[in-house]
Design goal:
This protein is an alpha+beta fold and 449 residues long. The chain has 18 helices and 14 strands.
């Protein structure tokens, strides 16, 4: 049971600005549904059953979501949810790969005359919880991948990466016979030797071929599955970026020149080859870059990438087809900022706040939306309306619940109340702007009306 909090205990640790940060108490529901963001709204029946906690009576609205079978089996509070939205999956990957937990430890001396060195007495430590410690003691799997992912390096001609020990001399490193044998160059050789290998692009090659790290050769795949993932290239990296685009489309390349050979015509650089293949018409390259990055990057990273493209690349139509990709988390950001779980924004307000986030990133780089041709400017009126907390609270209602309440209340109106209600609604719907004054003795139903 969560809490008690809210009016039952305003000093509960979960309270902030008069509201529960965990959004308790929840609303009663007859069945489990999903909201617009894909998060579950659990069934909470109004059974009138209550339990006492810290002197307060709590009902189903305060029950923390749980999985009954796992709770009973392990005697611990456990809940399982399905990640059915890409943003949830991205969050999980970001959380798993964020690194170990950290803790700041303080060393204090009981001696009054001891030297107080604030730098030395604070230690940045790695924190291992009891759960993680047990997991590692029992040698359970830390992670696994399915299917296997084959990382595929690539490089411009004569610019392959060489890794060697620090004490090695440059001459001995260069003289190694296999110094130039890497996955990328051996892909060229496999295409020369085998006809069926030429039917695959570089990214699809691991689906039918396996890399032998010991012999540094590609062998035919006998079993198992794997997918290829070409190393990322930044849009500002020039020819390397255009080569990566071509490697996703060109098949059977046997040399660096053949990659930029399109329909028998050899182009002097990879950028021209991309244009000849129809990959860079207008801003297609930048839009494809954002669409590809949207498969794995979170929205804040996508906005930083978008700003990088605006500043360092030639973009003809900067606002085309990008707003939806860059604004997927805007509503959730504002809900957290204003502590309003059901906050709704119009399409124009979402666009305005997306531009505000982009402008914030641009200012850090010494630029502004005013410096980018074709980019819309910030609408200060929309932003001011969104930041108006009183207005947001008035809009933060469950319309379906209010409709049910309205229908029940409307049926209870007496003749005089109904006459006044009809007159007021008629004035609002026809925009007559009439002024009404409701007068009556106490208890006659003015507040109810």
């Amino acid at each position: 049971m969560h809490g008690p909090c809210g009016e039952l205990d305003p000093h509960c640790p979960c309270m902030r600005q008069g509201n529960c940060t965990k959004h308790f108490p929840k609303k009663f529901n007859d069945r489990t549904t999903f909201d617009s963001d894909g998060f579950p709204i659990y069934k909470r029946r109004n059974t009138s059953t209550q339990v006492k906690k810290n002197g307060a009576n709590l009902d189903n609205r305060y029950v923390v979501p749980y999985n009954r079978d796992l709770l009973v089996k392990y005697d611990a509070h456990i809940n399982v949810e399905l990640c059915n939205y890409s943003r949830s999956v991205k969050y999980l990957f970001k959380y798993v790969h964020k690194g170990s937990d950290r803790a700041t430890a303080t060393i204090e001396s009981t001696k009054t005359g001891a030297e107080n060195d604030e730098i030395k007495k604070y230690l940045d430590c790695r924190y291992i919880s009891a759960i993680e410690a047990c997991w590692r003691i029992f040698k359970f799997d830390i992670h696994y991948r399915k299917p296997a992912v084959e990382r595929l390096p690539f490089h411009l001609e004569g610019q392959n990466t060489i890794i060697f020990e620090e004490e090695k001399r440059a001459e001995s490193v260069i003289s190694r016979p296999d110094i130039k044998k890497i996955k990328f160059t051996e892909w060229f050789k496999a295409n020369k030797r085998y006809d069926d290998a030429r039917e695959l692009t570089y990214s699809d090659f691991p689906t039918h071929w396996v890399w032998n790290a010991k012999d540094k050769t590609w062998n035919r795949r006998q079993s198992g599955k794997a997918v290829g993932r070409i190393y990322f290239a930044h849009p500002a990296s020039g020819e390397r970026f255009y080569m990566r685009i071509l490697l996703n489309f060109v098949k059977g390349s046997t040399s660096f020149e053949s990659i930029r050979t399109i329909n028998g015509d050899k182009y002097k650089n990879y950028r021209d080859a991309c244009y000849a293949l129809g990959l860079l018409d207008d801003d297609k390259e930048w839009n494809d870059c954002l669409v590809e990055a949207a498969l794995w990057a979170i929205e804040n990273e996508l906005r930083h990438l978008f700003v990088t493209i605006l500043i360092h690349c030639q973009v003809s139509d900067s606002r085309k087809n990008n707003c939806e990709i860059l604004s997927k988390d805007i509503i959730s950001l504002q809900r957290k900022r204003f502590q309003l779980k059901n906050l709704q924004l119009t399409e124009k307000q979402v666009e305005a706040y997306t531009l505000f986030e982009i402008e914030t990133i641009l200012l850090k780089m010494g630029k502004s939306l005013k410096d980018i041709d074709g980019m819309p400017l910030l609408d200060s009126v929309l932003l001011r309306d969104v930041r108006n907390r009183m207005l947001n609270e008035e809009l933060d209602y469950d319309k379906e619940e209010l409709k049910i309440l309205h229908d029940k209340s409307f049926a209870l109106l007496n003749d005089c109340q109904k006459s006044a209600c009809d007159a007021i609604i008629t004035s609002v719907e026809n925009e007559q702007g009439r002024l009404f004054f409701i007068n009556g003795h106490g208890g006659t139903g003015k507040t109810f009306l």
